[in-house]
Fold each of these.
Amino acid sequence: MSSRSPTPPQEPTPSRLVGSLAVAGFLSGLIIIGIYVATLDTITENKARELREAVFRVLPEVTQMQKLQYDGERVVLKENGKDDENTLYAGYDDKGNLAGYALASDGPGFQDTIRVLFGYQPANNKVVGMWVLESRETPGLGDKIYKDAAFVTNFDNLSTEPPIVTVKRGTRSRANEVDAITGATISSKAVVRIINQGVEKWHQRLPLPGNEPQLKSEGRT
Amino acid sequence: MDDLIWIFISALLVNNFVLAYFLGLCPFLGVSGKLETSFRLGLATTFVLIITAICSWFLNTYVLTHAPYLRLISFIVVIASTVQFIEMAIKKLSPALFQSLGIFLPLITTNCAILGLAIFATNRGYGFWEGLIFALGAGAGFTLAMVLMAGMREETGINEVPALVRGTAFNLIIAGILSMAFMGFAGLFSST
Amino acid sequence: MNEFLTAPAIMTGLGLFFGVILAVAYRLLKVEEDPRLEHTEELLPGTNCGACGEPGCVPFAQKLLSGEVKPSECTVASADDIDAIADFLGVDAGEAEKRVARLHCGGGKAQAYQIAEYDGFESCRAAAVVSGGGKGCSWGCLGLADCEVACDFDAIGMNDNGLPTVDVEKCTACGDCVEACPRDLFEVLPLSQKLLVQCNIPLAGQAVTVLCTAGCDGCGKCAADAEPGLIEMKDELPLIHYDSGLPVTPKATARCPTGAIQWVEGDQFLDPNQSHENRKRYAQLH
Amino acid sequence: MGLLFSLRRSFAHGVHPEHHKEQTADLPIQRVPFCSRYVMPLGQHIGAPARPVVEVGQRVQRGQLIGEPGAFVSTALHSPVTGTVRDIGPHRYIDGNFRPAIEIEADPYATQQLPRPTPIDWRSLDIEQFIAQVQHAGIVGMGGAAFPSHVKYAIPEGQQIDDLLVNGAECEPYLTNDHRLMMERPEAVIHGTEIVRQKLGAKRATIGVEKNKPESIAALKAQIGERPIEVVALEVKYPQGAEKMLIKAVYGIEVPAGELPRDVGVAVNNVGTIVAIADYFDSGMPLIERIVTVSGPGVAEPANLIVPLGTPIREVLRFCGGLKESTREVIMGGPMMGTPIADLDAPILKGSSGILAFTAKETGRPPEYPCIRCGRCLEACPYFLNPSRLAKLGRARMFEEMKEQFHVMDCVECGACTFACPSNIPIVQLIRTAKDNLRQRKG
Amino acid sequence: MATLSNKMNAYDEMLKGIWRDNPVFVQVLGMCPMLAVTNSAVNAIAMGLATFFVLVSSSFLVSGMKAIIPKQVRISIYVIIIATFVTVADYTLLALFPAVHKELGAFIPLIVANCMILGRQEAFASKHSVKFAVMDAVGMAGGFLLAMFALGSVREILGEGKLFGISLFGENFEPWVIMILPPGGFITLGLLLLLFNWVGERRKQFLAQVAAVD
Amino acid sequence: MSKHDPKLLLQSAPLLRQGMTTPAAMRDVWIALLPASLAALWYFGLAALLVLLTSIAGAVLTEWLFTPRERRAITLHDNSAALTGLLLGLTLPPALPLWMAFLGGMASIGLGKIIWGGLGSNIFNPALVGRAFLLATFPNAMTTWTAQSGPADFLTLHASNLALPFMQAPTVGAGTDAMTTATPLNLMKFEHQGTDLGALLLGNTSGSLGETSALLLILGGIYLFLRRGLDWRIPLGILGSAALFSAALFLIEGDKYPTPLFSLLSGGMLLGAIFMATDPVTSPVTPKGAWLFAIGVGLLVVLIRVFGGFPEGMMYAILLMNAATPLIDRYTQPRAFGRKRATK
Ligand SMILES: Cc1cc2nc3c(=O)[nH]c(=O)nc-3n(C[C@H](O)[C@H](O)[C@H](O)COP(=O)(O)O)c2cc1C
Ligand SMILES: Cc1cc2nc3c(=O)[nH]c(=O)nc-3n(C[C@H](O)[C@H](O)[C@H](O)COP(=O)(O)O)c2cc1C
Ligand SMILES: Cc1cc2nc3c(=O)[nH]c(=O)nc-3n(C[C@H](O)[C@H](O)[C@H](O)COP(=O)(O)O)c2cc1C
Ligand SMILES: Cc1cc2nc3c(=O)[nH]c(=O)nc-3n(C[C@H](O)[C@H](O)[C@H](O)CO)c2cc1C
Ligand code: SF4
Ligand code: SF4
Ligand code: SF4
Ligand code: SF4
Ligand code: FES
């Protein structure tokens, strides 16, 4: 009991209350913007690198990429603005030829939402790579969807026509089949379902072969 | 529609705020000793969660697109002020409602379930309805966990729990076992 | 660089906006409350023990504000705390006389006869409802510690003789033991009242001695030895009139044949040979 | 369901203890000889104690009034013997406490004859006079609770008794006093029933007897004649004799909690009470003796006895050959609801239906285990309480909750729950402790 | 107030937070971050350090400005101060340790809601000098860090057989998956608290014995 | 018969007791479980015996270690700790490393019972707490089901049984895979493949030790019922509601969902409904509450089995309803005699 004021504290004027709140807000705004600006470059760079790594992982033999946006009718180059569910990435090889698209898709897994990025070549209905961006699947079981190399490589060359199906481990025989992970059938199926949904969503939107967006500049972002 | 249902079920059972995300533990451990109170706190929390969902959607859509770096602080300021305003209004307009729900409001505004909801909803890019359903599910899940916990604590209160165990340690262990039981909901409606 | 302006601007705006709203709301929606209540409450111990006779600390605080009670009536708060409250409210702290719970029975295992054997739930009240628990004296202490359990301040312990001993230091005079005892043996008395009757039996003579060697047999010697008028024999028991203002001395205990009346400084039952002591004193006097 | 229960002539829940009545069921009622010292507690009944109207040293005749009713809910007290008043003061009562009592030393040379019978013309009495007479006769309920009978007959304005229910269930194990009474004096039972029925203005009377007493049922039926009295054979189940259960079994009516039988138009009397009334109006003899079953494995010679009130239990047992070496516990009343006796000098009271002695075999119990919430107590409790919860709360000293939420005050302490409990939890004792606590708080 | 402060020993203030008044084991504060991110020792330490930074800086600022903050809006202002420092911590982590930031994810902003931080401002920093406020903050945050580390390492050791990512028991160790799952968090913290109580009890008994001998 | 002699006992009435005691009630459950336990030995050989014995040992040892000295004599004597161990053992897969079975026994009693204050005070079924703990801790080992060995090779042991404490089973991958099979529920959930009802009744399918033979479990249930050892409402309510729910699903889409009969006879349904949901300590005491509890369990099992992530839902369904038991009890107080409504 350190504050033993004999009388209850006086009430200050409302304007002083409002004023001090405003001042606090002002100062805090200043500090925040300071740190934001100071870290902005590094953060953007980190993010870009991460993204590039992910895109390069799901699209083999790609060396350059650019960000695109589906605007409701067509796919256009995205210069800036926030990413949303209609954002996609195109990957190009050394010579600037389009090698495929990197598409993000998500859906419920065993525990929580799983978000994956997968490489897709609409020309030959193929998934050419898969990378888990986000998941809270059980360590030791569900996390094999990104930790188990055998599972991840399932997606390196996978036909999506007819849609991908999961089969019991070791019984994979067709081009559209994925070996499930023993003990994590559900997570495996979830990944497949998420990719199928992604393919379904994007297949119609992507430009036909020949109409692909060209690589602008030297592949920024 | 399916998505909305899954968001609700997920927040209610599979990814219960308290039992899977560890959000709102202070009131969960502190208040869940009495059933009546727990239930009312649950209702009040659901109410604040809904307010939060609305505020955060508003901020995300109209303010933060210009200044994303202000996300955290503006959430805090706006949610806290709105709730405080509502609290004063209830106190004045309906003392009965204030007695049953309002007295919890200050307690709730400072807990992490509220901020957690705003942040999760933003991170996941939820729209208005999604955010609202998420808040409803999270609130219902919080209430469910609170009420189950309160029932168990009232029951164990008259049992011969060893003196050394009684208290927070015991409540955490009960919560742990409850959380283990809630694992049974994992994968609900996502596997088929 | 315009970000350096937006951020502070938005924040200042938010601060102003909500500051004004809340300030206005505060004016319009304010509910009157005594502003001193909160602080008074903080100064109280917050144990909600009820020793003050109020249902808890908050109601006590309310009565403090309205002047119905004095700070010192809280028996749990330390002297410093009481002064602080009195200071804060600008009232008189009040005089508190230290009071403690005293037992009106000295018939432990070694003194009182057991006529039957009790077999059941270990609680005085439970035993009392099963034909008196087998103790010959149906007024005496049953020794199954209901009072010890009831005391929230850990002030009561059961001694080897099966009687509860009250730690004078720890007792806050809350009266819980008075309520718990099925035989109504406790009374909260000022610590300064050192002459105590440790028996409650309304019988006299041999009817008492066949039940308990420490019982008051109603002989009246204490009344005779004390200042005339101080002790009255009522229902075969000495009744001490402290309010008479007459001097109270250990003399009254000197000839008590059973030790039922005692001169107690501090805790009761500290000395297992007390009744023996009484007899010695009697011998010295004559 | 209601129909089903009424067809089965029983109530829901309850337990089936072994009835152990064979020890005394065939033993005719005998009279114990007089002894030297009698103790008549002033308060042997529910209500205010009687006021002594004699002085120490005064000579009293058998049947002479020695105590006046202390209030309306109180009855008169009469001397069980001819002798001299020795003391008026605290004496040990069966509940272990000391209670004011009149001690009478019997005159060893007195004949102990009653004055010549002076029948009372009950037909000419109006209800007030009848009530006054019953109160003056010192008659209280002999079914255990010792509630002054005349109070039951004082029906408040606006209420009407349609049915008189005579309780001959005798559901307590070991006891056979009511059974012997019904067998040996069926005419007195029927006669008493008619007196009370007519005075209360009830249309019908029903005598409820458990099926395990076919001789009693037959004897009663043989005496009815044209009277509007019915004898009903009830299922053998404990506590069939508890009045609300009996009403439920016979009429299918549930007496609301906190209300009395008369609120549903029923008056309930034990057969012993009925016979006491019959005897009083036939001979003018007030209540100075009663029938007591002495039984149990610890008694040398079990018996059904007519015992003058105030006789020390020790004397009754002596007449029955004393206690066996192996006796560990003596109780007054039945084994389910009786009171254990701490001091054998305590006297026989108006409400003492039996003296039972038990040996280590019956009193030795397995250790107490924690409650495993098996629910057997709930299924036993005829009052549909939750004894398991009550016991837990009782231990945790949460008395208010027991009362407010779990209706502890509705418990009649029948003991069915404790009987059924596999964990040997002293449920009834915990309940009684809590009730005692609550009563003290209120007072 | 000055006199009060003078009577106190700054080091005592610091030490009490670490053991006697440990914010987690004794005061049971800040449970949410405590449980949410302690599935490995590294995460626990990162979160602990972020909390440390926020608590110490806010205490410093609050005690420094206590004279000019109006009482009625003090809580709002504390919250603004805390939220500012949390944002600072958030961006710093994101820039310098993106991997750690990814793991801690949503829980860094939740430091704002950690009752321990606001509690210290209200109960201590706003009433004491800068020196004591900082000392107290260091002690409390240190105690928090310690508790985080204890929980994090137990969970990582049993849950993965590793500590700081280094394998402890060889390849064949069977990990206790539950430790990394939510129930494991609750139960382990419960058992740690139990252990803490038990040690405290034993200590009290021991001290009582020593006193008796004296 | 002198004045104070013999010193009489004072015991509160009633003096009579029904005769059934708590240890005897527990013993009845043991007897009722005997056929199913023997079947486990018959089908799974020595491995079954070892798993059962270690889980019992883990349970009993923990009970003994953590019970205050003065209560030890009676807690071990009441047969309940060993029963918990046995029930836990019956829910484990046959090839489980023994050290895990032991740990499971310890978790059952430690987390499921002792912490709560011992017999009668726990809210959750201890055996299932132990199993849930094991499943969450060692999900791989706990979902590795081996084919039945049959009485011929009674003595063969699985290498995995003998794994060193804290270590994985020595042969991961090929070795165990050769022996592993899917349980009827796994087949149903992931392959939409039924199992012959005859096999389910007799028990020659894979699964946990005690769950395979429906017939013997029902036999045990009947024995317990006759001995009044269980509350008949609970198994009846669970089986009834589960049957109705799965019948409804089956009618809607027969080729996707199992038949009701399959639901009732497969997996832990019967073991759970007869022996675990009926644990008196952790189920409601009130009759109405028992019905609610049972229906809740029945619905949850089918919900989890059909729509959830796990092929089997009995354990979680029971644990979840255990958590709700205090609330159920509170709101289903019997209506006291002569009172209008039950108050809460
Ligand atoms: C604690 C625990 C966590 C689990 N986590 C996952 C998971 O993250 N992903 C998954 O597909 N299955 C998980 N499972 C397993 C599923 O419940 C289910 O048994 C499995 O997916 C099907 O088994 P199978 O793949 O061996 O056929 C988990 C099981 C347990 C016990
Ligand atoms: C205060 C009080 C008043 C009673 N008044 C009446 C009454 O007016 N009429 C009546 O028939 N019974 C009355 N009773 C008696 C009860 O109905 C009941 O017969 C008695 O308590 C003993 O019943 P039991 O042996 O079933 O416990 C009264 C009881 C009490 C305690
Ligand atoms: C559990 C219980 C059992 C009882 N059993 C009997 C019994 O068997 N016979 C009987 O006459 N009264 C029995 N009574 C007393 C009756 O409830 C009721 O008080 C009595 O029949 C009223 O008649 P009375 O006032 O003439 O005694 C029992 C009471 C209770 C509470
Ligand atoms: C019918 C019956 C079923 C039981 N079922 C279980 C059970 O499923 N799991 C368990 O641990 N104990 C069981 N027990 C034993 C006992 O009730 C259990 O150990 C307590 O929950 C421990 O407090 C059962 C006992 C009985 C009488
Ligand atoms: S219960 Fe009795 S001994 Fe204990 S503090 Fe209160 S008055 Fe004193
Ligand atoms: S004083 Fe009263 S409560 Fe205390 S032990 Fe004696 S009889 Fe029991
Ligand atoms: S003693 Fe009370 S609680 Fe027990 S069965 Fe009888 S009426 Fe019910
Ligand atoms: S009969 Fe006994 S063990 Fe069973 S619920 Fe009732 S009190 Fe508990
Ligand atoms: S830390 Fe989460 S509610 Fe307090």
Note: Residues 427-442 of chain D form the longest helix (16 residues).
Amino acid sequence: MAIIERPSAPATVPAIPSASLGALKRPVTTQHGWRSWLFTVDHKKLGIMYGATALFFFVVGGLEAVLIRLQLALPDGRVLNADLYNQMFTMHATTMVFLFVMPMVSAFANYFIPLQVGARDVAFPRINAFGFWAFLFGGIFLNLAWFLGGAADGGWFMYAPNSGPVFSPSHGVDFWALGLQITGIASLTGAVNLIVTVLNMRAPGMSLMKMPVFTWMATVVQFLLLFAMPVITVALFLLMFQRNFGATFFDVAAGADPLLWQHLFWIFGHPEVYILILPSFGIISEVLPVFSRKPLFGYPFVVFSGAAIGFVGWGVWAHHMFASGLGPVSVAVFSVATMAIAVPTGVKVVNWTMTLWGGKLQFTVAMKFAIALIVLFTVGGLSGVTHAVAPSDTQQTDTYYIVAHFHYVLFGGAIFGIFSGMYYWWPKMFGKLLSERIGNWNFWLMAIGMNLTFGPMHILGLQGQPRRMYIWTEARAGEGFFNLAFWNLVASIGSIILAVGVLFFFINVLVTARRGAQAPLDPWDARSLEWMTSNPPKEHNFDSIPTVGHLDEFFHRKYAEDHQSGEIRKVQGAEEILAEMERNKDAHIHMPSPSYWPIVLALGLPVIAFGLIYSIPVAIVGGLIVVLGCFGWAIEPSTARDEDVDPPAAPSTEVVRHG
Amino acid sequence: MAELVQEHGAQHGSTGISNIKLGMWLFLGSECLLFGGLISTYMLYRGRVGEGPTPMQVFDIPFTSVSSFVLLMSSLTMVLAVSAAAKADDRSTVLWLTVTALLGATFVGGQVYEFTAFYNEGLGFSTSLFASSFYVLTGFHGVHVTVGIIMLFALVAMVRRNRIPGSKSETVEMIGLYWHFVDIVWIVIFTLIYLIPV
Amino acid sequence: MTEQHAHEEHGMSNAGYVRIALILAAITALEVSTYYVDFGPLFMPALMVMMVVKFTMVVSYFMHLKFDKRVFSVMFYAGLFLAIFVYAAALSTFKFFIA
Amino acid sequence: MTSARPRPTAVNRLGSMRRRVLPALALVALAGCASNAPQDTWDPAGPNAQMIDDLQRPVFAVAGIVGLIVAAAVGWAIFRFRDRGQAIPKQTHGKPVLEITLTIIPALILAVIGVFTVRTVFDLSKTDDTEMVINVTGQQWWWEYDYPVQEEFGITQPIITSGQLVIPVGTKVMLRQTSRDVIHSYWIPRLNGKRDAVPGRVHLNRIEADEPGIYAGQCTEFCGLSHANMRMEAVALSKEDFAAWVAQQLAPYESPADGLAKEGEAVFLNQCVRCHQVNGLERADGSPAIAAPDENVVSGAAPNLSKLMSRNTFAGAMFDLLTPACRRDVWEASPADFGSKYLAGVSEDCLNQTDLRGWLRNAPEMKPMYANPALLAGTGGKYRGMPYLALTESDIEKLVAYLVTLK
Ligand code: HEA
Ligand code: HEA
Ligand code: CUA
Ligand SMILES: [Cu+2]
């Protein structure tokens, strides 16, 4: 990628006068209106856009899941035919993983990493905007296949050669491969951006070991993305060259080995599952201490175990291939390596439990989701360990027992963490508290629904029901009342309860938006930096950049320990702290100006992708858009001129915008 | 509070490390996995020639040696350009950048010639697994070089248009990093793909 | 490479760069010579060593990693070694190194 | 887990344990014994599956105990430390000793599990004492079995069959698996774990059954439209019965003398033989009828129908060849008379006419086989699966009469 942030000239002397370049001037900075979203480079706005888009895709993926469950509720289901069913589970997984959890993580990371490290924005704001648009266009592109002859139908790991042109003749797989390629670019740029932000832009005094755990975990995730995305990129390129340009990478007749795809996919795929879970680990490591009113137990252990998971996660991918015929030596090695990963994960579970221990627990909805995560994730993690035992995995793999495992870790882990984060941070992002009453319905229905849906899948799988079956027959369901037919039905009913539970979240959002109470400055009596500013934060995040002396800096400013009695006393509230920061506010805060080019550049990508599928000239047009975008990007002035700013940047705001 | 003004864009962060440089190195680290994957694919498939020609039949080692040498030397000119830019010597910067770009173009031209020659010898893109993986690997590398050339020319234009060498020197250095990376990938490709016989 | 005079904050003099380039050229010539001369069993290891030497020289001197902040080396070599590790492991399951 | 807090009383602890443990145990018990699913992974019927079972039972127990401990600890913390207006707790940052202990314990547990796992992996991959070899080939969407010549079992000529794998009991059988199109996976849960059948590779998979009977299985690698319908069964016969089965398979073809069946043979020669082989079948001019499925089907094969009626199921074991009553009679037979019942094959009154006729009438409607015939261009005119042949009802009548003679 040839995108390079242009070094900014001294803010007072724009390198190129903007007025002379007409369209090339930076767009006027509007506080409101659609333009303020379309051209924004503000990490907070982008975070919200990531989140909203991700939640939309959650509903899409969830409805796909509900259709799957309806089809499987009864034997010989007739809701979907085989073809549609195969598209459904492929797109369900793709949507949930790539279009919901990953961007949802980007949403939180974008919004909160700069706040948690005490920065005013990310390192490369325009690249950040580009990442969002690339993700959005990639996601739309992926789903367009539904309307253009059928979506991808090879399962989310798209094993070769079943993904080849003969076996999957629709364009679904093409859309899938190229769509993921586009969202992959978004992930990669996001990773570079956030790592640089974390390493380079922390507030004075914030050493790495004083960073909030969410920032830590999100950073580990960015490293995983940084190194995992290129691997899937290679795989997807090979697939594309095979499908659209006559190469034979997975064509056995030409001598190819289908296991190559499996390796490439899972070298990416296993780190990917930690990409999905670690941010949620981070979130609940913030939530549990706040509502236990006590610091995270063993902070360094949580941090290092997170890093260790990220590290060891690279050495276990072949546990998805225990039945693929690797040979006993490889199987044994990967089996043992996989078990090793349970150790650092166990450290986390222990630390969370010990954080609760001896605390003063307040069961807000955020806290409930966090506590439920501990237990539900452990269930999923333990079934993971039973897969790690390779010989038993040959009984389990590709059965519903696996489906149970990954939904427990994904839904009970990643998604519960995300919901915990949403309840916790909602007042920060929108200035209003989500209703706890509706939130309780949300939580309990989701918790019950989730166990009813995925709990029985353990039984289904161990009793021999394979996954990815569009239909099941009573002949293999066993006898008695509690046979597989019964459990399938329970799972399907559970998924409806689950959907209703999720629906309550959206109701909550609507109700809150209409008539939610204004949130106090520090509603949870929180501990970390992102709370040391207004709700929602101002455009420049902090009036004055705090100097950090402690882990849990905010808490330490509010509370003091009486050394004699060991008693903890509140010495000042958030209001006082903020007032003081405002008094000492920084002069001349430079904020990046909005820009047209990220969205233009991103728009070129799906055009290229369309062209690769349908006609090369279109791809060339797309390429030209990209080149144009790069040029515009490179030569656009570094700062919007004062006259361009709407409302005119009054000197009193002391906010100057630049690149 | 003066240092806080410098929080953004390509400036140096609180650690005194350049954002953009850090970003570039991260990107290059990531590229290792991209080229690693392509190289591994090639290594796995290089012997699978089907009906088509084998590597040893098509490779023209003397020719590729020369073009490898050209690319290697372009690294030298690139580093000279970076060093000139750091000294705010615009004339030399432009000179060395241009030479680098031309050397790169020579390399790409050589690759185009090589591909044509291979094609004429019966090695089409989809002739065999060896062919596909060879073309994809070297093609990806060639695209990287081409992008580098475009960036070099853009850089030349930038340096010539507004002579603010001080602030441009980092940009020159960044493109230099990218360029050298493309070169070291070729160092690996040259040995693993061309010199080691199948 | 001991006689390099450190130049400015980091890096080296132009003469130093030229010297590095000459060494690189010499190694390349040696590499290519393996195509003409039979080095027997030394052939593979020698090629590998020469490749690694060239690689590290470019990275350390031309890309300044040797003189620059350590964090850059960490980021880059993390990617490099990770790549070597995972791909070597993957290839080994194909009996690649035996055949 | 210890802490500075006063220890909970034993009564309290028991109470909370009971609340959580008992329902959990009840659920497990329920799941374990209520059903008698044919693909149960906890019901080994041969030494390979047994080895896995011996390994997984303790592992599940350990996992269960760890899960209960975590749940109990969290549950107790929720109960004991809820906000009851107590003061803000001491801001303790952790206890390294405790942490390290609680890191080492799981590591040790896993190390032990690891040792047994590795041992079992190598035990299961043993092949040197193999007694019998069968080549198993997966394709969309059925399994073909090819018994190479093995004199010691009376197999003097290769036997090719599909759907049901017939093996002698107490014999170490090695399946040499591959595939003709995409990846499939061979899995008879009660005999062994699964092993993928990958095109271009041969994977070894050992099975052995202790007792005569039918063991159900299912293709477990997603392989396209009818993956769900790609089933299979392993049929274990006593050694004598197996010999009888071999003899039956090797018996020469008998052309029907006359009547409907004879007419059916003609239709078969006309319509079916381009894909389906019937060993010994001759054309009207006396030349042997050789099928050429590779010219008609993407996967390059269609089931060999020589002894169709010696099996109980067809079309990737998706449909029964037996009527439900007759099927039950065979499946539920005691190990002692199972063999003779199975060897009897499909008689005219036991034949499941509905499904077989349906199949001949329009196979793709009975079993999804390609998404969109218009898109089949990419396959060079070859079908994926069995096509719709537009047979007349009278042809079907004749064909059924003919097929029922094939045993
Ligand atoms: C969020 C995502 C996530 C997470 C965190 C995990 C975590 C783990 N996973 Fe999972 N996994 C998936 C998502 C995830 N997985 C997905 C999506 C698939 C299927 C992909 C597909 O096929 O479509 C999959 C599949 C999968 C397989 C392949 C199964 C198969 O297809 O045959 C295996 C095999 O080893 C496995 C193992 C593990 C292990 C050992 C862990 C460990 O990290 C778990 C560690 C946690 C604990 C163990 C609990 C807490 C620990 C303690 C309380 C300490 C004490 C514990 C002991 C002493 C045991 N997973
Ligand atoms: C993060 C990942 C994630 C998440 C969250 C989920 C969530 C769910 N999954 Fe998913 N699933 C996967 C990842 C995920 N899954 C993966 C990777 C696979 C493997 C695919 C493969 O084999 O290739 C899989 C496969 C899979 C299968 C197996 C299919 C098969 O093998 O044949 C099933 C079957 O039951 C299933 C069910 C569900 C259900 C019921 C949910 C539920 O939790 C969904 C609940 C959510 C909703 C229901 C939201 C709906 C909201 C509303 C209805 C409100 C409407 C409101 C408005 C319109 C405002 N999933
Ligand atoms: Cu064959 Cu699934
Ligand atoms: Cu995994």
Note: Residues 3-93 of chain C form one domain.
